[in-house]
Amino acid sequence: MIRLEFAEGYRFMQMLQRSWTPLMAAAFAVLAGLAAQPAAAEELAKDLFGAKKLPAVAAPQSIGFYSTGCFAGGVAIPMDGPYWEVMRPSRNRRWGHPAMIGLIEKLSRDAAADGWRGLLVGDISQPRGGPMLTGHASHQIGLDADIWLTPMSDKRLSPNQREKMSATLLVDEKTHLVKEALWTPQHALLLKRAASYKEVERILVNPGIKKKLCDTVKGDRAWLRKIRPFWGHDYHFHMRVGCQPGSPDCKRQEVTAPGDGCDQSLAWWFTDEPWRPAKNPDKPKAREMMTMASLPRGCQAVLDAPAPSSAEAATYYGGASIAASAPAAVQPPVAAPEPAITDGAGALPASANAFAATPEIGIPLPRPRPGN
Ligand SMILES: [Zn+2]
C-alpha cells in the first residue's frame, strides 16, 4: 500500500516535469505572489479572535495591554458554582487567566461569608482574548472581569434567564447619583472585599457609586484608592487584575494616584463636561479596526496554537484541578516594537481627555454599554 502510493507520487512528479511549460511557471508565480501577501494581517483581529471557541493550550500568559492584547492558557469559570452563576453564557466570554478565574471563585466565597448571596458573573474574556466583535475596549488579556451589582437570587437562573434577565441600574442617569432605594451596605462590602486582594489593581465603577463610597465609608478608606470612577458600570463593577508571573510581555498599567480619589478628580464627573455627546459618535472604535499587525507579535502564535478537546477540558474547578493539559508554552516570536496603545479614547465623549488630571488617562477605556 505504502509502496503503491510512493510509486504514484513518483509518476505524478514525472508528469509534472514533462508538462512544465512557461504557462505553468507563470501560474506558479502568481500563486507564490498571493501567498507572500500578508492576507492575515489585513483581516480584522476581532473577527479572528471572535471566531475562536476554545483557548490556546499553552502555559498561561497575558500578552500586551488590557486594550491591545491576547492571552494563552485560558481557562473557563464553570457556568455554576456554589456562589456564582455565569450571565449571558452565549457570548462565550467566561474565559480568563487562571489567576483571574481563581480570584473570582475566591471572591464568590468571601463575599458569601460577608452576606452577598452569590455573584452574577458578567463578561471576562474571549477564549484567547483579543478584541471583541461587540462591547468592551479592554478585557483582551484575561485579566478583566465584570461582576454584576445584583446578588444571586435563591433560585438558580435558567439558561434563558441568564441571557435575557435585564440588569438593575443602580445609578440615576440624570443626576449620576446612586438610587438610594437600591443601594445597600452589602454593595459597599462587596467592593471592599474585591479591592482587598493584592492581585486587584483597579475596580471601575460609575462615578455615582464612587461618590456614595466616598460619602459613607468610615474607618479604613485606603481601599478606595483602587475604586475608580468611569462611564457606564452602573449595574456591574469591573475588576482588573495586574500582570501575573509568567507573562513577560504583559504591559502594566499606570499606578493609581495616591489618596482615596474623593477629590476634585471625582467632582469633575459631576460637571457637564464628561457627559457631553461625542463630536464624532460614529467614528470607528480602536478595537473595531485592529488587525493582527496592531497587536503584539506573540498574539499570532496564540491564534495559531492548538485548542483543548472541549471547553470542559479547560474549565477551572476550584484551583485544585485544571483539566486542560499544559504542554510547552506558546513561543512568541522575537520581540518586535510594541504598537502604540490607542485605547478607546476615540469612543468617548469629546471632552474625555480635556483634563489631564482625570483619573483614567493612560489606562484602557471600557466603553459604556447601555442596555446590557
Ligand atoms: Zn468591564
UniProtKB/TrEMBL annotation:
Keywords: Hydrolase, Metal-binding, Metalloprotease, Periplasm, Protease, Signal, Zinc. It comes from the Bacteria. Residues 1-41 form the signal peptide. The keyword Mitochondrion does not apply. GO terms for biological process: proteolysis. Gene3D superfamilies: 3.30.1380.10. InterPro entries: Peptidase_M74, Zn_M74/Hedgehog-like. GO terms for cellular component: outer membrane-bounded periplasmic space. GO terms for molecular function: metal ion binding; metallopeptidase activity; serine-type endopeptidase activity. NCBIfam families: PRK09429.1. This is Penicillin-insensitive murein endopeptidase A.
